[in-house]
Specification:
With 403 residues, the protein is mainly α. The protein contains 16 helices and seven strands.
């Protein structure tokens, strides 16, 4: 019904000029206005229901408006994702499966899984005893579908289209019960591949706001992170002269946001604080980027290390041994991450690696050492830089070589 409210709301409160100028913000404004109006006026709610009914029935004008919203939204999303280094081959949310719902409902009906309630709604009985103590609603009393039905239709279509080995849904944890019921329904329909469907829930960010206000859009967060990093870099005594400070600030700011989000369990809520997120010391994305840039600077100064001088006997110091032992854990960490799909393992591995490399860099000097010792230590730091860069890329972070 959310889209019904948005569609009906846009007909009353929308503006094509604003939609073209700032699509996501304007659609959000319209949705908020429509929700508020619906609380005070039943006619707005009825208009939303009517809009949604027309959408399901394939009304040309209604579909045209939906397609406009969809195309504009995807264009905006793609631009934001590009900043994060993310590309999707296809955009196909549950709302794109309106035309597949009837086929899914016919399948459910043929398998005897649909039940009619006294209220007029249609449900799937998920109770073990068949007493409707647990059920999922697929149709409202007016015959329009809920997103449960569209998610079932989407799963069926995706298996037919992709023959996937695994399908992973990543949404906030409030949807956990919903996806458990979707997967259970697919199993009841006889689809054993439902075992290959997995929900990865995440918690919520609390206390996040930008200078522009309480309601937070991802694009605003990225802009704010870049702006704050530029300010921090401008006053830092260690900041190098950069060809493109904006680009560096963008990459470091995004790293800070990603590490803050990934270093704990995905399921956990956390309190957001800009000052803590952008600290250059401690377990932050800024610290990862600083360490990587420092290792790159070392290589620019002394080279990557000459193999003919490399000698393992020159890496007997406790600081070197600690780094080498940590390298050995990398495969284990990657395996663990693929098993439970928790990025915290890689994130915390990299943070620990940076702390070990910082200690090693301080005590295992290159300048003034014999060629054999110096070149062997450079090899150690080069290996650290390679592992760090590799792990950062796995997290979606673009390493910087100077900051």
């Amino acid at each position: 019904m959310q889209f019904g409210l948005l569609g009906a709301g846009f007909q009353q409160f929308g503006c094509q000029e604003k939609l073209q100028r700032n699509p996501l913000h304007h659609l959000f404004e319209v949705y908020v206005q429509a929700n508020k109006a619906a609380e005070e006026d039943d006619e707005i709610q009825k208009s939303a229901q009517e809009f949604f009914r027309k959408l399901e029935e394939g009304d040309g004008q209604t579909l045209s408006l939906w397609k406009q919203f969809r195309d504009i939204s995807i264009r905006e999303y793609a631009g934001i994702y590009k900043r994060l280094g993310i590309h999707f081959d296809e955009y196909s949310g549950e709302s794109f499966y309106q035309d597949k719902v009837q086929d899914a409902l016919k399948l459910l009906e043929s398998k005897g899984l649909l039940k009619s309630m006294n209220s007029g709604t249609t449900v799937v009985d998920l109770s073990e005893a068949g007493d409707l103590s647990v059920y999922a609603t697929v149709l409202r009393s007016d015959g329009t579908s809920l997103y449960f039905a569209r998610d079932v239709a989407a799963a069926l279509d995706r298996m037919e289209k992709y023959s996937f080995d695994k399908m992973i849904y990543v949404t906030d944890k409030s949807q956990s019960n919903h996806f458990q019921q979707v997967f259970q329904t697919l199993k009841m329909m006889g689809y054993h591949w439902a075992e290959c469907c997995q929900h990865v829930p995440f918690g919520r960010v609390q206390g996040m706001k930008t200078r522009s206000g309480e309601v937070v859009f991802l694009e605003d967060v990225l802009d704010e992170a870049r702006s704050r990093m530029l300010q921090n870099m401008a006053v830092s005594k260690t900041t190098k002269e950069l060809d493109n400070p904006d680009d560096t600030a963008e990459k470091v700011g995004i790293a800070a946001l990603i590490v803050q989000d990934f270093k704990g369990s995905l399921l956990s809520d956390y309190q957001f604080d800009w000052d803590r997120v952008l600290q250059s010391q401690g377990d932050t994305g800024v610290f990862l980027q600083y360490t990587h840039a420092r290792l790159c600077s070392l290589e620019r100064m002394f080279g990557p290390g000459d193999q003919k001088y490399f000698s393992p006997q020159c890496l007997q110091e406790p600081q070197a041994v600690s780094v080498l032992q940590h390298f050995l854990r990398y495969d284990e960490v990657l395996y663990q991450t693929t098993e439970d799909l928790q990025p915290k393992h890689i994130t915390n591995y990299l943070l620990r690696l940076c702390h070990l490399l910082a200690v090693a860099h301080k005590s295992l000097t290159v300048k003034g050492s014999t060629p054999e010792v110096a070149q062997t230590r450079l090899y150690l730091f080069r290996a650290g830089q390679l592992v760090l860069a590799n792990g950062m890329k796995l997290l979606g972070i673009t390493p910087v070589d100077k900051m």
